[in-house]
Amino acid sequence: GTATTFYSENPGKPLGHHWDADPANPGDYDLNITSERMVGTLTELGLEPHPTYGVFRTRHINGTFPALDEFRERWTRILGRDVNFVGYPEPTGRDVTEYILVGER
User: What predicted TM-score, i.e. pTM, was given to this entire model?
Assistant: First the structure.
């Protein structure tokens, strides 16, 4: 779902699910990234996008790119909630405001 201050748009969550309704379990931030270099590296390692969601698994991004993992860990500590990278194999045509980082092409 999206990291809004009031509501999650994740269709897999029940209607009316509020992102921070449970203070003991704050919502996370998912940062969408795409890069031909990222895709090439993951593909060379034999890693493929998730068959259902079509994105590279967060654990593969974290395990393959130490600088991204360090960034994620730092901001998880600073914000007090999980920060995750979601690796898209190619630009999706979605709203460009959803993308915070765009790698070299």
Answer: 0.68
